[in-house]
Amino acid sequence: MDVYYAWFNLKEDVPDLQFAEAARAYLERLKEEGQLVAYRITRCKLGLAPPNLREWHITLDFLGLNQLDQAFLAVSERADPIESFHQAVNSKVRDIFFALYRDFPTRIASRGRRSFRADKQPRGVEAGGSIGVVQVTAVGASRPLPRAQATVSFPIT
User: Fold this and answer.
1) What is the mean pLDDT of residues 42-55?
2) I want to staple 37 with a disulfide (CB 3.0 to 4.6 A). Which of 51, 60, 61, 67 is the partner?
3) pLDDT one-digit tens code per residue, 58-74
4) CB–CB of 36/60 below 8 Å?
5) Which domains, and CATH codes, for the chain?
């Protein structure tokens, strides 16, 4: 299962029940059309949340990325009836951010196998050596940082 998360606040003049009804109607429509498996609309209780999270939270459950992509395609067509539902919800929120998570482990994941193994040493690198140097440019900087500040080594033990 892939789970799409959205955290947000309502715009100042939006009544909470009006928003919840509009969101439920929109998400039920997507669910009826097979665009998602399930959803949940939640609201912070008693102000008990980390300061970076918003008051409202919606989760959307998808069978996989294919179903998620189909839902995004249906919404991006901007055609009714989905567009009317989408606009009724989207126009009421602010400060929104998203995340995409998946159930883990997946049913197809092989246990005990990974491409990267911390206990294996790359060929030609001795213990205590490094396997790479990364050039770092600070956000908003017009040039790379001085080499002494930009070298990042990955120790091999």
Assistant:
1) 93
2) 61
3) 999 999 999 999 988 88
4) yes
5) 2-102 (3.30.70.100), 125-157 (no CATH)
d(CA 16, CA 11): 10
For the chain, the first-to-last Cα distance in angstroms comes to 37
Confidence of residue 89 (pLDDT cuts 50, 70, 90): confident
Can you read off the two tokens belonging to residue 24? 């439920």
Q: What is the pLDDT of residue 125?
A: 44
pLDDT at position 9 is 95
Q: What is the DSSP string of 39-108?
A: EEEEE-STT-S-TTS-SEEEEEEESSHHHHHHHHHHHHT--TTHHHHHHHHHTTEEEEEEEEEE-SS-TT
Residue-wise over 97-128: b if at least 16 C-beta within 10 A, else e?
Answer: eeeeeeeeeeeeeeeeeeeeeeeeeeeeeeee
